[in-house]
Amino acid sequence: MGIFTKPEVVILKGTSDAQAYLEKLELLQKKAEGTALEQIQKEIAITKAGIQGEENILFELKNSNMDMYVLQDIYLETGDGLGAQIDFIVVTAKLNFIIECKNLFGNIEIDSKGNFIRTMEYGGKKHREGIYSPITQNERHMAVLKECRAENRNFLMGAWIRKNFDLWNKSLVVLANPKTIVNDRFATKEVKNQVIRADQLIGTMKKLISENRELPSTKKEMKEIAEKILRRNKEQRKDYAEKYEKLAEQTEDISEANDSKAESMKAEETENIVSGVCPRCGRELVLRTAKKGDKAGMQFYGCSGFPKCRYVRNMTES
């Protein structure tokens, strides 16, 4: 009797820098004001959506009932300095899947030229806008991964890897927002095979694996492939929060400048009152007596430039 082992999903790296990035942004929004605050709040919303999208994909992978090694949030860099931050690399027995996660709001239309058009409704109106193609984005990721696998090999092996890379590596763009509707009826077959919803991910992976005619790797070989990629992962990355830190600092500088200006104006006003000069226009202050109203008979300092300047100060104010 044969022994059947249960398919195993191994998460070699299942964490993302996005959470730490989000925490930085949430601290910065406490300092920011005006347009800087609006930009930071918008980035927070985008980051939260991205984190939720990746969690949706990770859930699908963990419940795939397939043998696989999962790497999340991998940053690779070639010897020439080309970099790619890849949401997921999934190593299976026959194919490696390079997954770009998009948790987009609104509905997506893909035309015959491969353009992505998003339609969103707000203010009671529908708004259409073109967005950067996630297929193009993932093609760049694939190119960086290919070069990382090929470089530092001898000439023949490097050329062989570059030539055959697409046989074992497939690009998938996963739209992780369950409310997003994808209209791809005019898209090419190649595009349709790459852009899917999160609930189609496992079915698509199984279909592509079943169609692949290459010999399957053993679990040991799968692990070695995944670990080689993981060793190329760079932990020290560009700090994307730096841009928003500068925005928040500018807000603080403006606020401090305004406070300083207000204090200076207040001090100048007090000095002018003591010397009998109007703090608004610089004319002489004169002693007047109110003739009407509930303050009739009371004296006050008024600007000699009245009625052009209506500055007044009560006698009781210091």
From TrEMBL:
Coiled-coil segments on the chain, per record: 219-257
InterPro entries assigned to the protein according to its UniProt record, in alphabetical order: NERD, Topo_IA_Znf
Alphabetical list of Pfam families matching this protein: NERD, Zn_ribbon_Top1
Record-linked Gene3D superfamilies: Bacterial Topoisomerase I, domain 1
Keyword tags: Coiled coil
UniProt cross-references to SUPFAM superfamilies, sorted A to Z: Zinc beta-ribbon
Residue span(s) of domain NERD: 49-168
Protein's UniProt keywords contain Signal: no
The name this protein goes by in its record: NERD domain-containing protein
Origin species: Suilimivivens aceti
